[in-house]
Amino acid sequence: MISQTLQEYNQVVQRCKDTFVKKTKDYGTAWRVLRLPSITDQIFIKAQRIRSIQEKGTQLVADDINGEFVGIINYSVIALMQLNLPADAPLSLSAEEVEREYSRHIEENIQLLNAKNHDYGEAWRDMRVSSITDIILMKLYRTKQIEDNEGQTLISEGVEANYRDMINYAVFALIKSGFAEKVG
Fold this sequence. Notes:
Layout: H1 2-27, H2 36-56, H3 65-84, H4 95-120, H5 129-148, H6 159-176
């Protein structure tokens, strides 16, 4: 099962990365002006929209839920990049550098996935997508609280761990939706 998960995971993140790289070529790195709380709020908007659609059973804007999960993944990677860039990093980064950093962060997430799947036995496969959405929202509320506390925690993991978990949960939702199978 682990090899199937890695294959599906890689298919999903490759599609997300392709979208991210194309948008970088279109827009440059305009996202560099965003502070972490603004990125967190962007992710929150996407997760809240998913939950709203799940609860109402209908939507009025054509953008599908899968696109919102892709956005959660890509904005979470943006957050990880922003966390790791030096304060004096330029606003404009090359598409090649962005692609390299994206891959590096996803590779770290795959290591996290392997460790957690080992310990939890792929429990996510038995979860509902609506529960995954709720967990992402909980991670967002945690992240907002940590940000409001200026990054200080007493016992909890910091914002990086929450962004990494949001990536993995969004990938799980996309795998469960069949998004990985729609490669082509």
